[in-house]
Amino acid sequence: MSILKTPVFPEARILIFDDEEANVRVLERLLRSEGYSQIRATPDSANALEMASSLGDVLEGVRSQAGGHFDPDVAETFLVNHGQLMDLAPAAN
Known about the structure:
This protein has 4 helices and 2 strands, in the order E-H-E-H-H-H. By secondary structure, the protein is mainly alpha-helical. It has one domain. It has a two-stranded parallel ribbon with strand order 1-2. The longest helix has 21 residues. The chain starts with 13 loop residues before the first strand and ends with a helix. 4% of the residues are buried. About 6% of the residues have low confidence.
């Protein structure tokens, strides 16, 4: 089941990290079904830090757009999308 006709950002590099492996796998499967291919996913915090360091230019871009400060809108977006993911989780199986 695909919600989108094409990925909104087809070349997006996506890092998925959650301490619940089931959440990681469901989100990864859902994103792949939507056409995203550059996905790195892990439930392990050490691996997540290593993976995030490889996205340094992306993270720096987020920081610079936020004026070098934490942007609560990013966290809010994550939380909203996480809730939507949980609503879609049965459909991703």
